[in-house]
Amino acid sequence: MASLSNQGGHSAQVKMRLLVDGGSILVEQLGPDFLLVNAPFDHPPGDASMVLQVDQSERRWNVHLPHGISAGSKRVAIAARA
User: Fold this and answer.
1) 14-58 pLDDT, tens per residue?
2) Can you give the C-alpha Rg of the chain in angstroms?
3) Neighbouring C-beta atoms of residue 1, cutoff 10 Å
4) Which of 30, 35, 79, 81 is most buried when burial is the number of CB atoms within 10 A of its CB?
């Protein structure tokens, strides 16, 4: 009978944030055209930056918030910035 082993296993540390107007919002989920944020607040449509950290690696890209952010909804629409 074969023995299962977890040798060399790794669980990545993943953190996602939305940077908007000098502030940072924790992102709980990232979809192709939306985010789910931890603590939404009212913010008008505009530009923002997405930050994805996986272990020691970080990636940033610019996004547009076509409908802004609503304090009443964790879902935030995003679009690529032109």
Assistant:
1) 999 999 999 999 999 999 999 999 999 999 999 999 999 999 999
2) 16
3) 2
4) 35
pLDDT value, residue 75 = 98
* CB-based contact 29:23 (threshold 8 Å): no
Cβ contacts of residue 61 below 8 Å, gap of 6+?
A: 49, 50
SS3 category, 82: coil
Task: Give pTM, 2 decimals.
Answer: 0.81
CA 18 to chain centre: 6
Q: Are strands 57-65 and 23-30 parallel, antiparallel or unpaired?
A: unpaired
